[in-house]
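STRUCTURE:
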């Protein structure tokens, strides 16, 4: 048996073993460089060859055709073709290819076929019994494909799907059958003619003509995934988003919607992208039977831009025509809207910020004219390292101004407007004493100049001066065992002296101070600027931590605050964890491991050993199941504008099944009133080519809607079309 030989043509080597070597070289050159036939000798072929052919055997038959057989591979630019037999006919200037054939043009397009007649560059021709895989997602089978050099591929008798098709299960979950499909490679668009959509082999929809984006195409003009929901307020509603790209930097999405209860609406979204950021403006206009004869709606603006000198400009604002619109149309469940326009620069040792803030309450019991709806802020925060000076530590300089306004002009808290400017200087230094005791010292001084209008209870202007001095001692003890367990016990004691002078100021930005492990040892625990700590106090606590090599970790803290006298900011009749000369006991702890279990608890216990506040969070993820539950208890407080106690229990459970299904169930239960506030459930299914999500929520009582409401949401998405890729978890066929 004759030995098999392998002939290679490249830019540096040409081999010919026949007597008619000049003819063979000419024919091979045509195949490789995809140009006109060469009429010159071999040396000219060396200069023009841009492709490579490999085969088990290459010869010229009696008709003058070049024949390559046995594991044929051809490379030309980004195109690679493999076949069993390739015949080049010089007179017709085309290739006759016998399969199985595989043609790949980069990683995004793979074509499989049984036979083909192609041009020498393999970009045009007729392909029979072919299958195209686009972007490793969408599979298109066709009886024939006509390739055009312009990049338009005409396919006949087409079946398209991103679902796997296996011998044991030849019917895909969904498929699109069409008489004719045109694939534009330049725009990555697919146009179907006389298309039929089938689900599990059953025809459910016929479309004379439709255009779909190819896989991986994120910006294509056309219809997006429909939005379907069923609710007790609006009935069955359907929205059809339509996406309109405007160049490479802008786009518009319009979403007309209608419902069985007489709702008609149009949603819109406009986006623009710049080199340094982007802007988005959107909203919705509706007319329904909830408020007959009225146009309802909402609008929003979001922006983020990077400016020169490390400054950033950001915005996030939303407004609605009435209190219930956002919840009714499932846009947000927030009970208060807040927006901002911010210009800031944050560096390692400096922060500069200017903000315009807006607030609007959706609660039925709130009067927005009596709330601070508009506020402005400007601040400079500079850190100065003093490590190389005799003082040591770090110096912090703060300069700022703030003002807020109520629309109401009623005298008192309902109409009070406040403007304030402040300057603050702080110094802090830490060191290690003999015996391993960590000592920290801090000094803080602040001056506020405040002007109050529409509230005769406060003199104006008022200048307040506040000063604090703090010394802190921490003594960590550590122990390690042979089993890899490490424990740390750390007693902490802080002694703070504070004094305020200059007159009383209104407290609008921090009326509900809390006591937790995050602020027990803070120099000031107020999140706002109106209230300042006054008087001497001692903060003491004991921390314990345990770390185990197997992944278990636990932490605990017990602490309390003792004051020389009660805080004057709280009325004597108000029972508050921080309002007395001795605070409630703080008990906090956390247990977690690497397997997905986490338990966090926080308790406040008053001097009578009664729990005054409690919060626990439990989260567990084990295999296919995850559980999250939360319990919260906060007593009623007229001072904190809470008429009834908060005693709530929330649960959310998710279960994933091997079949691709997942289920969720959850609720919010008000223990104090012995009723459910919210109940929710959902089912989801996801496989290689389909995403299905059905959710239900029942709102029994909410802050913005005193009546009960039920809502169903349905989302179905065909994966592998457009920019959404299917999952690769089950792509292979099973035996």
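SEQUENCE:
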């Amino acid at each position: 048996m004759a030995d098999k030989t392998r002939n290679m043509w490249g830019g540096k080597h040409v081999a010919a073993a026949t007597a008619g070597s000049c003819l063979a070289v000419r024919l091979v050159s045509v195949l490789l460089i995809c140009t006109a036939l060469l009429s010159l000798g071999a040396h000219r072929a060396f200069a023009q060859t841009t492709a490579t052919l490999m085969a088990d055997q290459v010869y010229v038959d009696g008709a003058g055709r070049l024949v390559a057989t046995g594991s044929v591979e051809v490379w030309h630019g980004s195109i690679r073709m493999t076949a069993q037999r390739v015949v080049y006919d010089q007179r017709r200037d085309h290739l006759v290819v016998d399969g199985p054939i595989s043609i790949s043009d980069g990683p995004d397009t793979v074509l499989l076929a049984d036979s083909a007649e192609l041009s020498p560059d393999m970009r045009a021709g007729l392909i029979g019994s072919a299958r195209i895989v686009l972007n490793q997602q969408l599979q298109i089978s066709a009886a024939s494909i006509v390739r055009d050099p312009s990049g338009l591929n005409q396919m006949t008798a087409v079946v398209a799907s991103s679902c796997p098709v296996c011998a044991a299960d030849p019917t895909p979950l969904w498929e699109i059958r069409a008489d004719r499909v045109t694939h534009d490679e330049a725009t990555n668009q697919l146009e179907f003619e006389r298309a039929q959509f089938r689900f599990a082999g059953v025809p459910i929809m016929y479309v004379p003509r439709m255009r779909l984006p190819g896989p991986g195409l994120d910006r294509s003009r056309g219809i997006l995934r429909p939005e379907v929901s069923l609710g007790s307020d609006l009935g069955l509603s359907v929205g059809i988003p339509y996406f309109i790209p405007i160049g490479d930097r802008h786009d518009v999405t319009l979403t007309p919607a209608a419902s069985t209860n007489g709702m008609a609406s149009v949603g819109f979204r406009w986006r623009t992208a710049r080199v340094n950021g982007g802007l988005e403006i959107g909203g919705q206009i509706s007319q329904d039977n909830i408020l007959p004869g009225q146009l309802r709606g909402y609008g929003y603006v979001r922006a983020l831009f990077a400016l020169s000198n490390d400054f950033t400009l950001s915005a996030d604002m939303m407004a609605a025509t009435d209190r219930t619109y956002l919840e009714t149309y499932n846009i947000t469940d927030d009970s208060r809207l807040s927006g901002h326009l911010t210009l800031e620069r944050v560096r390692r040792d400096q922060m500069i910020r200017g903000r315009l803030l807006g607030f609007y309450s959706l609660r039925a019991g709130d009067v927005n004219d009596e709330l601070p709806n508009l506020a402005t802020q400007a601040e400079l925060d500079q850190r100065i390292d003093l490590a190389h000076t005799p003082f040591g530590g770090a110096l912090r300089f703060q300069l700022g101004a703030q003002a807020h306004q109520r629309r109401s002009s009623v005298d008192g808290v309902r109409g009070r407007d406040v403007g304030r400017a402040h300057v603050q200087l702080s110094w802090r230094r830490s060191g290690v004493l003999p015996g391993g005791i960590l000592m920290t010292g801090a000094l803080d001084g602040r001056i506020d100049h405040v002007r109050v209008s529409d509230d005769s209870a406060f003199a104006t202007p008022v200048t307040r001066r506040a000063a604090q001095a703090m010394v802190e001692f921490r003594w960590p003890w550590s122990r390690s065992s042979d089993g890899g367990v490490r424990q740390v016990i750390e007693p902490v004691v802080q002694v703070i002296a504070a004094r305020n002078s200059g007159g009383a100021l209104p407290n609008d930005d921090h009326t509900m101070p809390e006591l937790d492990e995050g602020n027990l040892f803070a120099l000031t625990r107020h999140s706002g600027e109106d209230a300042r700590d006054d008087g001497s106090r001692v903060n003491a606590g004991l921390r314990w931590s345990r770390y185990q090599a197997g992944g278990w970790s636990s932490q605990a803290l017990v602490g309390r605050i003792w004051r020389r006298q009660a805080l004057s900011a709280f009325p004597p009749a108000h029972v508050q964890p921080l309002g007395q000369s001795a605070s409630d006991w703080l008990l906090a702890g956390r247990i977690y491991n690497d397997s997905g279990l986490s338990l966090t608890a926080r308790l406040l216990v008053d001097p009578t050993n009664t729990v005054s506040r409690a919060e626990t969070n439990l989260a567990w993820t084990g295999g296919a199941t995850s559980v999250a539950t939360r319990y919260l208890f906060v007593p009623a407080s007229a001072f904190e504008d809470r008429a009834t106690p908060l005693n709530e229990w929330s649960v959310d459970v998710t279960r994933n099944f091997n079949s691709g299904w997942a289920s969720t169930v959850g609720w919010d239960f008000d223990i104090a009133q012995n009723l459910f506030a919210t109940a929710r459930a959902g089912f989801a299914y996801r496989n290689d080519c389909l995403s299905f999500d059905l959710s239900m929520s029942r709102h029994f009582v909410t802050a913005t809607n005193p009546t009960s409401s039920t809502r169903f949401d349905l989302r179905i998405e065909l994966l592998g079309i457009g920019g959404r890729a299917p999952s690769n978890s089950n792509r292979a066929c099973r035996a």
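REMARK: Residues 21-33 form the longest helix (13 residues).
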